[in-house]
């Protein structure tokens, strides 16, 4: 049941010839719901490439959307997370100068404190496709990627036990980006990302017609057993590689979501340019399942998200080819989200999304464990369409229960 649909703003930044738009970044966390029923979301408005403006807007229960804070975003949309005690965490790169800003509120946005998080960050006027993740204990990770060959993960980790941030750098063979970083409950860390490099760097012919010569052709799962080690080691598993069938195909394996379920399995959703939407599952460091998602079209495959409700049932939420919100619900006997059965399509009227790859219309981005929320029968979030940010609420079980459950505090399956 679609229980709410509202326009948050029609002032978000979106110009075809002036990159990077507000909706850029499938990996961005954009929405927070507190235990008090307050909502917070963020968006960027226009500015010079390195000096966009971020806006934090708040909706109190029964109230309207109101801006409560703004700042220098740098070039990319910023990130927002919820802490276990309703803390609001914002992460930005003011001026895109390699200085990571952390802005936090512990009183529902009434006051804020700001600190700069030191690290060997990129200083070449590129924020590095950054993103964030957290868990129910309050462990937080923030990261950026950089270079093409070799690649790098720069990341900083907050432990609520030590109350300290620790910076790490991992060099990898190629750049893997549009990443999802997900802290576990035993000081472990799970990462899913897609290779994003120039075609020649991986042995493909250069593009024949376009100035854009990058290719997204390989999805990997990475895992760190213990982030507390002085030197952390990345275990790596290839999820899927697809080679281009002509010189101008580039979005070959578009990563749309990653999720750790209540059994500790890692789910990866991606769109195969030649074979449509796919759902892969990693357990014990191995790909145990990779199946097509038959109910979702290739266009809608660019916007897929996966979630469970309070009873552990799986759902895939996306934007269909006509711009409507859709929910693909698992069958009653499904155990891992691969047996999907019922499609529910919501008419969103004058507030459609769109399928434009990853840039000007962002995916439904809502309350999930990786941005600080318990599993619930009701999800709240936003999706983007050019200059619009649109808020939605979906009751997954459509029975008004609204139940919540915390993820079990068990070790993530490596």
Describe, in short, the structure shown.
The protein has 414 residues and is mostly beta strands. It has strands at 2-9, 31-33, 39-45, 52-59, 66-74, 79-82, 88-92, 100-105, 113-117, 131-134, 140-146, 151-159, 164-172, 176-183, 189-198, 214-224, 235-241, 253-260, 266-272, 276-283, 286-292, 305-308, 314-319, 325-330, 340-346, 365-366, 375-376, 378-385, 388-395, 404-405.
Structural summary, described in words:
- The structure is a single chain.
- Helix content is 0%, strand content 47%.
- It has 414 residues and is an all-beta fold.
- The chain is built from no helices and 30 strands.
- The strands form eight sheets. A four-stranded antiparallel beta sheet has the order 1-29-28-26, with no helix packed on it.
- It has strands at residues 2-9, 31-33, 39-45, 52-59, 66-74, 79-82, 88-92, 100-105, 113-117, 131-134, 140-146, 151-159, 164-172, 176-183, 189-198, 214-224, 235-241, 253-260, 266-272, 276-283, 286-292, 305-308, 314-319, 325-330, 340-346, 365-366, 375-376, 378-385, 388-395, 404-405.
- Mean pLDDT is 94; it is low at 405-414.
- The chain has one domain (2-405): YVTN repeat-like/Quinoprotein amine dehydrogenase (Methylamine Dehydrogenase, Chain H, 7 Propeller), CATH 2.130.10.
- A hairpin with a 6-residue loop joins strand 4 (52-59) and strand 5.
């Amino acid at each position: 049941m679609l229980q709410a649909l509202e326009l948050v703003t029609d002032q978000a930044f979106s110009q075809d010839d002036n990159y990077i738009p507000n909706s850029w970044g499938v990996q961005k966390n954009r929405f927070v719901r507190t235990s008090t029923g307050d909502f917070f979301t963020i968006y960027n408005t226009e500015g010079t490439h390195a000096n966009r403006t971020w806006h934090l807007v708040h909706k109190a229960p029964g109230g309207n959307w109101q801006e409560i804070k703004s700042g220098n975003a740098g070039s990319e949309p910023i990130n927002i997370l919820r802490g276990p005690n309703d803390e609001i965490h914002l992460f930005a790169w003011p001026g895109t100068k390699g200085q990571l800003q952390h802005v936090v509120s512990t009183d529902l946005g009434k006051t804020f404190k700001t600190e700069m998080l030191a690290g060997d960050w990129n200083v070449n006027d590129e924020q590095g496709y950054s993103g964030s993740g957290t868990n129910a204990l309050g462990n937080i990770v923030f990261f950026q990627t950089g270079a093409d060959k070799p690649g790098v993960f720069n990341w900083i980790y907050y432990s609520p036990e030590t109350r300290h941030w620790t910076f790490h750098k991992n060099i990898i063979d190629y750049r893997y980006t549009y990443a999802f970083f997900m802290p576990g409950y035993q000081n472990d860390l799970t990462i899913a990302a897609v290779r994003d490099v120039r075609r020649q760097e991986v042995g493909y012919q250069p593009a024949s017609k376009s100035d854009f010569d990058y290719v997204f052709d390989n999805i990997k799962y990475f895992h760190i057993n213990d982030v507390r080690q002085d030197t952390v080691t990345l275990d790596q598993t290839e999820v899927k590689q697809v080679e281009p069938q002509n010189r101008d195909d580039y979005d070959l394996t578009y990563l749309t979501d990653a999720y750790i379920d209540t059994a500790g399995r890692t789910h990866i959703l991606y769109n195969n340019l030649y074979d449509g939407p796919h759902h892969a599952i990693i357990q014990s460091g191995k790909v145990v399942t990779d199946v097509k998602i038959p109910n979702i079209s290739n266009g809608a495959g660019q916007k897929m998200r996966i979630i469970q409700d309070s009873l552990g049932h799986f759902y895939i939420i996306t934007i269909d080819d006509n711009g409507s919100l859709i929910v693909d619900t698992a069958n009653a006997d499904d155990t891992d989200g691969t047996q999907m059965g019922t499609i529910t399509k919501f008419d969103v009227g004058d507030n459609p999304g769109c399928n434009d790859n990853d840039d000007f219309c962002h995916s439904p981005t809502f309350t999930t464990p990786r941005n600080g929320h318990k599993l619930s029968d009701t999800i709240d979030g936003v999706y983007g369409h050019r200059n619009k940010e649109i808020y939605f609420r979906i009751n997954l079980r459509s029975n008004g229960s609204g139940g919540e459950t915390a993820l079990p505090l068990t070790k993530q399956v490596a």
